[in-house]
Amino acid sequence: MSLILTAVPRTRALLFRRMLLLNFCFPFTGALSQAPAITATVDIAKTGAVEVSGNSPQPKPAFPAGGDQPAVNPGSPTYPLDVSAALSDDRKTLTIAVLNPSDAEQSIHLDIHGAAVASTGKLWRMAPNSIDAVVKAGSPAEVQVEEQSLDAMPATVTLLPYSVNIYSYSLQ
Fold it and tell me: What's the domain of life for this entry (predicted)?
């Protein structure tokens, strides 16, 4: 199963929102004790379509809402992580969002096909210290979006627990 996204307008905020909403609607119930090597392949077509595939399909829910088994289980085939990718409107920038909803650090191998990425990029990460982190008016935020400059796209990335990670690289 593959998740196909076309090159429609996408912003980092919308990717954050999609990843968080998916996690809140279909929460992860815990970390895997022996996580398999997870690989996500991002294929960029000449038409601008971006397809994300992986080697770790989403499991069927143990207790589906309403008692019915859904025809398609939510999330990308990169369980327990969720991966989404899109091109910018001008098709010059690839953005990859990776959500780790588990309570353990996870690693994923990223393969990019169909385009070469630049030797520098950016990472925006939102990773609270605990699942109970809150943001209250008048108090210091317990979770913030951190921006980081990156060198070449790493082949394998390690993701902090409960984190949303957005990688952005220009295409060559």
Answer: Bacteria
